[in-house]
Amino acid sequence: MSDAFRSVIAGVGGYLPERVLGNDELSLMVDTSDEWIRDRTGIRERHVAADGETTSAMAAEAGKRALAAAGVGPEDIDLIVVATATPDMTFPATAAIVQAKLGVTRGAAFDIQAVCTGFVYALSTADNFIARGQSKAALVIGAETFSRILDWSDRSTCVLFGDGAGAVVLKGVPTAEAGERGVLGSYLRSDGRYVDLLYVDGGPSSTKTVGHLRMVGNQVFRHAVRNIAEAIERVAEGASVDIADVDWFVPHQANQRILEAVAKRLGIDESKVVTTVSRHGNTSAASVPLALDEAVRDGRIKSGDLVLMEAMGGGLTWGAALARF
User: Which of 116, 158, 212, 227 is catalytic?
Assistant: First the structure.
């Protein structure tokens, strides 16, 4: 039986902290250089949350902007899903805090933790709620303050990440009315055998501390290109879409080299790839919606465009989603 409702992306929003940390300033903090960072990652600068600026605060601001873009209010939202690996607290869920900040008083709110793939997981989860008629309008947010879990003496990791938040509003529209618009499909995967390639060395039940991010960069790169390509091929196949027909490719902004390698492997023209990594760094679960927001605001992504989103993160987790605006 076909789903009764289609999840249409009605609005997007993004938020970046005011403080910009450029490579030259970073080179005063750790043994690195602008040339070294740009050559290996493509990153020139990243945004860093201010003291006291929390993941929920950024998530709420991105959510507020997405609501405004969609032309809906807090009273219209009945589901909030926040993807984050850097919550305000162990509990309650950051989504519940965002729910209160935005004045949403009905429905459910919960977090999803799939690290950099979090937004794709969250989008897929909300889409399933809408498809089953369990939600009429969902706010899906990716938000991170990775600056709080970095070891600023480790140049192999601290140069990569930044803070920020991005959000989308999904509206449930009867399939017959939606036509070709909406989320057409998603594909999610994980493989826990590779947890030691990208992880945080602390947690409530193990060390009673927050810990710092650790990564085996060269192996993550190898898995990323293969796994992301697989996810893209599977989601396109499931939606009966030819990758060549995709108008915009909005990838997780991990590393410019990874973006280029995936595009080359799948034959995606570079002009179709939305890239923000040079200015945002890797904002984990926030990177896909932040890039999506920028491309919508500057007019690149228009109504009717076919958009492919993908990500890979610690776990390892990976996935892709396909939507027509």
Answer: 116
